[in-house]
Design brief:
The chain is mainly α. It has one domain (3-65). 89% of the residues lie in helices and 0% in strands. It has helices at residues 3-26, 31-65. α1 runs antiparallel to α2. The longest helix is centred in the last third of the chain and has 35 residues, at 31-65.
Length: 66
């Protein structure tokens, strides 16, 4: 997966977290615990993807400087 696609994936994931958080407030079967769990998982995934993007970017920069 290229860096652009990974960044788009992070954005989509975070947007999904926002939507779920908003919708969970209005759904009595979900509520705060569901929204919190979903958002926490989404944030962790986003952090992992961003770290991968940073690693790939650094690797590309090193290749281009050599």
């Amino acid at each position: 997966m290229n860096i652009d696609t990974m960044l788009e994936s992070v954005i989509d994931n975070l947007n999904d977290c926002l939507v779920v958080g908003t919708e969970a407030k209005e759904n009595p079967d979900q509520g705060y615990p569901y929204a919190y769990g979903y958002s926490t998982a989404g944030i962790r995934i986003s952090v992992e993807h961003l770290q991968t993007i940073i690693d790939q970017y650094r690797s590309l920069m090193l290749e281009n400087n050599q």
